[in-house]
Structure formats: C-alpha cells, structure tokens
Amino acid sequence: MKKKPEKVLITGGAGFIGSNIAKKLMDRGDRVVIIDNFNGYYDPQLKRDRIKKFLKGYKLKLYKGDIRDEKLVGRIFKTEKIDKVIHLAAMAGVRNSLLDPKLYFDVNVMGSLNLLEAAVKHKIKNFVFASSSSVYGNNKKLPFSEADPVDTPISPYAASKKTDELIAHTYHHIYGLNVTALRYFTVYGPWGRPDMALFLFADAITKGRPINVFNRGKMSRNFTYVDDIATGTIAVLDKAKGYGVMNIGGDREDTLMRYIEVLEENLGKKAKKKMLPMQPGDVPKTVADIRKLRRLGWKPTTRIEEGIKNFVEWYKEYYRV
Questions:
Q1: Beta carbons within 8 Å of 15's beta carbon, 6+ residues apart
Q2: pTM, to two decimals
Q3: Domain range holding 140?
Q4: pLDDT tens across 97-145, in order?
Q5: For the chain, which terminal residue's Cβ has fewer other Cβ atoms within 10 angstroms, N or C?
Q6: Does 209 reside within a domain?
Q7: What is the 3-state secondary structure (H, E, C) of 196-248?
Q8: Domain total of the chain
Q9: CA–CA distance, 126 with 4 (Å, rounded to integer)
Q10: Residues 6 or more apart in contact with residue 57 via CB below 8 angstroms
Q11: Cβ pair 42, 193 in contact under 8 A
C-alpha cells in the first residue's frame, strides 16, 4: 500500500544532513518545511547553495529564523499543519563548544524545548532529533550500545545533547509524544560542513598545507556516509514509536590513517601530516552497535572508498579545484 504523503518540518534543513534528508523525503512525495537561521558558524553561502543548487527544482517551504524564537516556531506549526518533525538545528562540534558553552546550551537545549512544546501542542505524530555519539564520552566498552551509561560527557556539546535526550524522555512520559534521539556517528560526504575533518583535510592537502592529525593518528571511527544517515533517519521517522535512543553509524571501523590514505588517493596528492596530541573533549574511538536500528530494516551500504570518492568529486566541482 502506497504511503500517504506527509508534511515534515526539518529544523536546520539547509544544513549538511538536513538538506540530504529533505531531498529523500521529497523524492518519495512528502512535503517539506525547513527552518534555518543561516548563522555564521561556517560560510552561509554553502547553506544557501544547498537550497538553491542541491535542492534545485524541489518545491519546499523555507523559513529563515531561529528555533529559540518561540513565536516563530509556534507560527510555523500552526500555519503549516506539520505531521512530523526532524530536529537537526544545533550548534555543532565538540571543540567549538569549549569556546562558548553558554551559546551551545542556549541553542541546543532551549531551542529543543521550544520545539518539543510546539510538538505536544500540535499533536505531532513523530519527533526525531539529532543526538550525538559524543554522549558516550570516554566509555571504554566497544562497540557503544544504547544500553551503556552516558552520565559522564566530556564536552559542553556532548552535555547539551545528553540534556536533550533527558528532556525528550520527559515529554514522552508526560504527554505520550513519540520521540527518538538518534546518536549520529561521524558523518561525511558531499556538501559537508567546512569544519569537518574530511573537508579540512581536503582543503589543506589541495593547498599544500599540513593537516593536523590528532592523537598522532591513533584514532578510529565508524565513518557514516550522509546518504546512509538520511535513509536511517527516515526509517526512524516512519517506524519508531514511544521513546527511544538509537545509534546510527557505519558498520565498519576505519582508522583515521586509512581515512586520510583514501583521501590522498582520490586527490592524487600526499598529505603533509602534523602529528599532534589528543584534543580536549575528543575520544580515540567511536564504534556503534547498530542492531537496534537494523531491526527497522535499515543498514549502511556505503564504504569510505566510495563515499570519499563522491566527496572529492563534489569538492573539486563546487570549489573549482
């Protein structure tokens, strides 16, 4: 039976993950409403181009504004008659959260609270939001499981995301809101953010500058391609009920050095590596137990060899390298 089209609000929809999810939802016939404040955390032109170029030809409703603006949020829910919410708008990045923790809590916690309030008032069917693998902190047990304790975050960013999970549970418990926290694991791909490792590395290698390799390269991650993140998020939007926390990550652990090696191969240029100690707030390994999300019929399909190739092709075209 064909699924009835729904209207989905995506906060941070001009962002890296949000624009990819928007495209997939519209491809299957859903209607999309986006709110984004186009802030200067990185070049807003990239956000504008995701809407103008990446989503060219798609019909969507765009609101330029801030999720902390309670009146605007209320107006969007009332005017647009939203069915479901994918909440991605946030101040991102572990390292930057050390510089301005107040801003991170203001946006990530108070902004989320505004949206949860509106979701309850307007009887939203399902509310899915971006948490982060960083909530696991320095947990030694691998892979990270949703059942693991996450009471010891090691950065303001991680603490803000853990706070969101707690508040979301409260809104489920009191009001019965269907709400799922998705713990994203190291997302990468075309149209990615300039503060992400892959982008920083590609930019530096292309321009002949050294790249910063933290923990002297002794790092590994479940690098997760943005298309896999988008399909996983939509699977949760369609099927998850009640309150839940789910990991969403690749199914293969790759070392940082292998990640750099694949990038070098695709750029056809060797990196000058500046080996540095571990950064405050960072962790040496993040590996996801993804069995919970697999039970919804989702699985990651893109390896770094293919994903990095796609990123480099986009990077060269977009920046005319």
A1: 36, 47, 50, 88, 89, 193
A2: 0.95
A3: 7-185+225-249+287-301
A4: 999 999 999 999 999 999 999 999 999 999 999 999 999 988 889 899 9
A5: N
A6: no
A7: CHHHHHHHHHHCCCCEEEHHHHCCEECCEEHHHHHHHHHHHHHHCCCEEEEEE
A8: 1
A9: 15
A10: none
A11: yes
Task: Report the chain's C-alpha Rg in angstroms.
Answer: 19
Q: What Å distances lie between residue 261 and 100, 255, 267, CA to CA?
A: 33, 10, 10
Euclidean distance between CA atoms 163 and 167, whole angstroms = 6
Identify the CATH number of the domain in which residue 65 sits.
3.40.50.720
> Is 263 contained in some domain?
no
The answer to whether residue 200 sits within a structural domain is no
Q: Which of 63, 157, 171, 315 is catalytic?
A: 157
Say how far apart CA 39 and CA 91 lie, in whole Å: 10
CB of 30 closer than 8 Å to CB of 6: yes
- Strand 84-87 and strand 7-11: the pairing is parallel
Rounded Cα gap, residues 227 and 112, in angstroms? 25
Q: 81, exposed or middle or buried, with CB in 10 Å at 0-12, 13-18, 19+? A: exposed
Q: Are 190 and 197 in contact (CB under 8 A)?
A: no
Does residue 127 fall inside a structural domain?
Answer: yes
Helix, strand, coil distribution of the chain in percent, nearest 5? 45, 15, 40
pLDDT digits (tens, 9 = 90+) for 16-46: 999 999 999 999 999 999 999 999 999 999 9
The whole-angstrom separation of Cα 243 and Cα 318 is 40
220 Cβ neighbours under 8 A, 6+ residues apart: 253, 254, 255, 256, 284, 285, 286, 287
Residues 6+ apart with CB under 8 A from 185: 133, 221, 222, 223, 224, 247, 248, 249, 250, 286, 288
**Average pLDDT value for residue range 228-252:** 96
CA 292 to CA 144: how far, in whole Å? 12
CB-CB contact of 182 with 301 (8 Å): no
Known catalytic residue at 157: yes
Helical packing angle, 111-121 and 156-175, nearest 10°? 20
Q: Are 104 and 156 in contact (CB under 8 A)?
A: yes
